[in-house]
Amino acid sequence: MSSRVIHKHSRVDFSKPLSFTFDGKIYQGFAGDTLASALLANGVKTIARSFKYGRPRGIVGAWAEEPNALVQVDVGARTTPDLKATQVELYDGLVAARTSGWPSLAFDLKSLGGRFSRFMPAGFYYKTFKWPNKFWPIYENIIRRAAGYGKSPIEPDTETYDHKHHHVDVLVVGGGANGLLSALLAARSGLKVLLVDDQSELGGYLLSMPNVTIGNLYARDWVAKIITELSNSPNVTLLERTTAFALHDMNMIQAVELVQDHLPHHERKPEQRRERMHRIRAKQVILATGAFERPLVFGNNDLPGIMTVSALTTYFNRYGVSCGKNAIILTSNDLAYQGVADLAEGGMNITLIDTRANINPLWAARFAKLGVTIYPGYGIDQALGSNAVTGAKLVKLDSIKMSASINCDIIASSGGLSPTVHLFCHDGGRPQWKDNVLAFVVSATGRANAGIYCVGAVTGVFGLQESLSATCETITEMLAALNKKVESDDLSFNTDEINCSPAHAIFRIPTTAKAFVDFQNDVAVTDVELAVRENYRSIEHIKRYTALGFGTDQGKLSNVNGFAIAAEMLGKTIPEVGTTTYRPAYTPVSFGALAGAHVGDTFEPRRYTAIQAAHNSRNASYETVGQWMRPWYFPKPVEDIHAAVNRECLAARNNVGILDASTLGKIDIRGKDVREFLNRIYTNAWNQLAPGKCRYGLMLNEAGMVMDDGVTACISDTHFLMTTTTGGAAGVMSWLEKWHQTEWPELEVYMTSVTDHWTTAALVGPKSREVLAKLCSDIDLSKDAFKFMDWRDGTVAGVPARVFRISFSGELAYEINVDASYGHYVWEELLKAGAEFGITPYGTETMHVLRAEKGFIIVGQETDGSVTPFDLDMAWAVSMKKPYSFIGKRSLARSDTARTDRKQLVGLLTDDPNFVLKEGAQLINSDNITPPVPMLGHVTSSYYSAFLGRSIAMGFVIDGIKRRSDEGNNIVYAWADGKAVKVKIASSVFFDAEGARHDV
Amino acid sequence: MFVINCPHCNEPREEEEFHYEGEAFIARPAEPETQTDAEWGDYLFMKKNPKGWHWEMWGHSAGCRKLFVVKRNTANHAIDGAWTLTEARAAYDAEMAKI
Ligand SMILES: [Zn+2]
Fold first, then answer.
1. Which residues lie below 8 Å from residue A251, measured CB to CB, with a gap of 6+?
2. Tens digits of per-residue pLDDT, A911-970?
3. N or C, which terminus of chain B has less Cβ within 10 Å?
4. Do A891 and B65 touch (CB under 8 A)?
5. Burial (0-12, 13-18, 19+ Cβ within 10 Å), A69
6. DSSP A116-146
7. Residues in chain A closer than 8 A to B19 (CB atoms)
8. Sheet with A378-384, edge to edge strand ranges
9. Which CATH topology does A900-986 take?
């Protein structure tokens, strides 16, 4: 490995070699490497092919700013696309692959003849969308081949993820020099401190600056000393490999921790999480998020072998990798100089091209000693080389005169630093442009009232000594606001830095060669130019038109250059152009981390009734209703759903069936004003309902639309039990609370949800009385003693029970309510008692068929929030004479609600008794479907009724109630699956309209 | 993802514990039947929807089940206070008097 530089500062452990695979080839690296540093050390220059033009691309950055080196890591269920090679920690056995380049990295078809450069200029999508539809398949084919990087895993994820919640006094985001100092000062004052840092090691850019001294310590020793003190403080938590990716309202920060993806497979613990999301509520947030160095834009600046100076320095100092022997450094500022000196001292031949005519004499002297050749006032017109950089053509900037070409094997550029202002801006904050540092920066204490403080490079203070002193001041101010004092007397912030001379406000060097602003999206200077020429003015529009700042790097390197170039072309200043909007997430976050434990069985709570075991033992098939798991049907061997439902329906109609109705919502309502409360909530009247009686009620919203229904029983004059739909229970409960608390606090009513307290077994069918009689001796079950819509207290199978004689099937039926603890027992006793009558447990599907045969509605199936009781032909359930104007009443008289030709619920019958209409089918007036076809309504419920020997359906039809009895006008057509089927509008009560079957 | 201080529980809790109940101080007309369709329509449908400070009702659904009033800034989710239904009107009137 010729390009390794073994030196004492390196954070790579050269005694621990590792092997890894990239694109099918085996390479060697060392512990402490990233995939990027190891690839560079192995001389791998081309890592990707560009999005539009298929141009070869190499590594540009050293961390989250990397635009090019997107790789697919691992295989099978663990495979992860689009990781940045610069952020992937190397481990033994790592398998990675390119995510672009077809058919190969060495040869990309897109690069041929500039095919794509013609196809995809700025605004490609916008323009293409305007083209005739018939061209789309052609372009779609091309786009699909070209679009995207990497492959999503197609196997189910075998890993687990979780969430952790933190409540801390101080959260420090970023473990660089200023983040560490902030955490230290906050910790010394006794506050509960959490520090998160996205790298594998704390220290930030100090890890790339080993020769700098702070006080009398080398940077690495200074870092180590602070970490030791923090680690020994019980009030401090340090989280490495943890990226704060979003800042939300009231200082809620989300951060994702990579728990063990950096370990070789055999060291990963199956019980450990792959990633953990931390949700941090912090009283004070200190953003020490640093900055990324942005490159300068020049011709062919995307050739492999061209990177930022900070990346080149980091690979050299931190990872012990020399990316080249002969380097050209292009800079507009002094910030790059320390790295240049380190590289030159380390033996790299360096040509320094500074866009400024005057070089800081202190540095000039130092560079002279190190043998660095300097070109002051020059730039690079274009890089030379075809697959990797081999040289550069220089240009003298004041004369735009081309100069000689220089050979090199690496070019690094620096256009200054772009502060990482993202988190500050996620909840609406905006960065400010500062001319003296040529950067969008955030204010150190500008959001102190919200508990947000900023320190270090993110505030535009780039010098180390200056920033540490400023940080100390900021934290002093923060602590003072908390009545605490800073303890910093033992700390020295003196460094051996040379003061910076002013940077040059230059972002691009004009050239005739292709010059890229955004590498990941192949946005060239000419694309920004085109957008401006086509009259885009807002930077948000220019971004979307060109795709500048899109993608997985979100423009961390390219945005500021793009804004500056747009400003230049628009003839505006950079602050006038401003920035695009910074939105979470700062870097990509996996769905696994976001979902945490909310997957599979733990995705949502599942509610089971007390008799679930009984249903399981009878082979129930389930459906989800709200959060409830309800038996859907009970298939016998070889039965499909239709056979099972037909059998269950016939059993309930001819003998006896039994249904678990425990999931219906139950609200116990007490107090002296319950009757009045019910009068106001329900459409019908409750004054006369005597204890021992039940009544069906419809609940409307204030717009007059049906929102729930159910049976309510009068237990005593001051005690009622309301039932609601299964899915509506919680909503009804808060609805009742709302009206009671806001409008009628004077009514004395107390509401308690008792849904889970009771098991409800509905015993249904002509033999139900005989079954119940076997288990219940203390209730007189005779027709006249225990009438329809009565309820009685008694015992069933020896268990105290409330028995309701109510029916959702039209049959003689009893709903037996017992304490849920006895539910399973009573259920089994009922099945035993019913055995001689062929008792048949049935599920929700049969329940639906039985109620549809009788035309009973299901709220949520026949209703959708736009249906009044009159639309449902249920005027019988509405009492317009009650003194208090019940909820929804006034709306029933609004001009639109009072229309008589609204869509109304009717029965629907097909000619073919075996044809079952599709629920949701549109109802139309004729089978001629030449547009425009007026839509009259739709089918809401449709089943095959084994008992009636034919299909039945319900649905809404405009003016349906009138048409139902108009022989000449009662035919409509149901349109579904490309067919119009003739249907007759009929009564929705398909049999026993007089109710003889339950009146026995 | 904000935090609401329930005035009944007197405890700052995460937003997930609460549900939104819309604009505060919309009183139900005492005699709905005397309202014109337009007046009734105003009561039903016309809401303020401001950008900025808004007085609104929240319910502590996963806590005490009480409704209460919150003054929230719809532009940045800042919360300036929370009051029980009995106290809220006075706080609102006091603020309106200042304007
Ligand atoms: Zn509460």
1. A171, A281, A282, A283, A284, A285, A450, A451, A452
2. 999 999 999 999 999 998 888 999 999 999 999 999 999 999 999 999 999 999 999 999
3. C
4. no
5. buried
6. HHHH--TTHHHHHHTS-GGGHHHHHHHHHHH
7. 734
8. A378-384, A391-396, A401-407
9. Elongation Factor Tu (Ef-tu); domain 3 (2.40.30)
**For the domain that residue B20 is a member of, what is the CATH number?**
3.30.2270.10
Its pTM stands at 0.90
Q: A438 to chain B nearest CA, in Å?
A: 29
pLDDT band at A357 (very low <50, low <70, confident <90, very high): very high
Q: Which CATH superfamily is domain A515-584 in?
A: BFD-like [2Fe-2S]-binding domain (1.10.10.1100)
Counted across chains A and B, CB pairs separated by less than 8 A come out at 53
- Please count the other Cβ atoms lying within 10 Å of the Cβ belonging to residue A409: 18
Interface touch B59/A738, C-beta < 8 Å: yes
CATH number of A295-415: 3.50.50.60
What's the total number of domains in chain B?
Answer: 1
**All structural domains of chain A with their residue ranges:** 1-150, 161-291+419-481, 295-415, 515-584, 632-662+757-851, 665-756, 900-986
Residues in B touching A745 (Cβ below 8 Å): 85
Common-topology check for domains A632-662+757-851 and A665-756: no
**Ligand 1 centre from B24 Cα, in Å?**
17
Report pLDDT for A880.
Answer: 94
H/E segment holding residue A907:
strand A903-910
Asked whether residue A115 carries a pLDDT value surpassing 50, the answer given is: no
- Is B44 close to A891, i.e. CB distance below 8 A? yes
Which of A249, A702, A742 is nearest residue B44 as measured by Cβ atoms? A702
Domain spanning A161-291+419-481: CATH superfamily? FAD/NAD(P)-binding domain (3.50.50.60)
| pLDDT, tens digit (0-9, with 9 covering 90-100), for B57-96 | 999 999 999 999 999 999 989 999 999 999 999 999 999 9
Question: ipTM of this predicted complex?
Answer: 0.98
Mean pLDDT score, A692-704: 97
Instruction: Flag whether residue B31 sits within 8 Å of chain A, measured between CB atoms.
Output: yes
**Nearest CB to A734: which of B19, B32, B44?**
B19
Own/partner contacts of A977-980, CB < 8 Å, gap of 24 or more, are A977/A918, A980/A924, A980/A926, A980/A927, A980/A929
pLDDT reported for residue A2: 53
Q: Which one of 3.40.50.20, 1.10.150.120, 3.10.20.440, 3.40.630.90 gives the CATH number of domain A1-150?
A: 3.10.20.440
The percentage of chain A sitting over the pLDDT mark of 70, rounded to a whole number, equals 96
Question: Which CATH architecture fits A665-756?
Answer: 2-Layer Sandwich (3.30)
Among the listed residues A995, A963, A724, the one whose alpha carbon sits nearest the alpha carbon of residue A858: A724
Q: Nearest C-alpha of chain B: how many angstroms from A739?
A: 10
Q: Are A982 and A971 in contact (CB under 8 A)?
A: yes
Please tell me the class of the A632-662+757-851 domain.
alpha beta
How would you label A764-775 residue by residue, b for 16+ Cβ within 10 Å and e otherwise?
A: bbbbbbbbbebb
3 state SS of A108: strand
Tokens of A839: 């008792």
Please answer yes or no on whether B1 and A248 come within 8 Å at the CB atom: yes
Q: Kindly state whether A891 is in contact with chain B, defined as any CB-CB distance less than 8 angstroms.
A: yes
Question: Which residue in chain A is spatially nearest to B74 when comparing CA positions?
Answer: A249
CB contact under 8 A, B85 and A742: yes
Contacts of range A469-475, beta carbons closer than 8 Å, 24 or more positions apart: A469/A493, A470/A444, A471/A178, A471/A181, A471/A182, A471/A288, A472/A181, A472/A185, A474/A182, A474/A444, A474/A445, A475/A181, A475/A182, A475/A185, A475/A186, A475/A286
Angle between helices A559-570 and A525-533 (to 10 degrees): 40
Look up tokens 């939104």; give the residue.
B20
